[in-house]
Amino acid sequence: MIGLGTLLNMAAIIVGSAVGVLVGGRLPERTRDLITQALGLITLVVAALNVVALLDADWIADVGSSAPLLIVLGSVVVGGIFGSLLHIEDKVERFGGWLQAKVGRSEGSEARARFIEGFVDASLLFCIGPLAILGSLSDGLGQGIDQLALKSVLDGFASIAFAASLGWGVAFSALAVGIVQGLFTVLGAAVGSVLAASAVAAITATGGVLLLGVGLRLLKVSRLPVADLLPALVVAPLLTLAVAAWL
Hints:
Helix content: over 70%
Structural class: mainly alpha
Low-confidence stretches: none
Oligomer: single chain
Radius of gyration: 18 Å
Number of helices: 11
Number of strands: 0
Order of helices and strands: HHHHHHHHHHH
Distance between the termini: 40 Å
């Protein structure tokens, strides 16, 4: 069944979040903050592993040795321009605020801010990365859900830690996962069989850069509007194909 991997992933996030909320209520605030910061450090490690795709042999063969970094740079800049003009970050936060209003009308402003932070940060973390993209493409191609099954386990445990600190907003990130991975699954079913390996590498490396931003958010170093950079994931493969065709 195509799409089963994403449904499994959503269920893992919801269950993990429920466990995290139950556990988090028994933990002091200092411990909850430490958990979030630990996730930030792990996110930086995952981001670095993704950025290594800049050395992908297929990508270098198609565009040359110096082009991958320039493609990622151009993708982030162009994607950031489009994203900021479209106010993607603001819209995601407003949607998170709308969700919070529906499920927690009586909660105060601090609880509202935590809900939105959990929703936005968890959505970015769970939707950006090679497993989300490659796993969904593989699912769409009918090649199985092994990668998404692995991602479901990882996201489930991450949801426990996240929700222990940020609450129920993390559970609603399952909606974002369903939409994003669902789109990539449809893309895989439509054109995945002809998607060049270099284009996939471009998405992976650019996703790594965006994950660096997510890690900095979790560490409270910077509230970089990573959602505004999401169009870069579309720009990167297009630039790669354009450069490869030009060469």
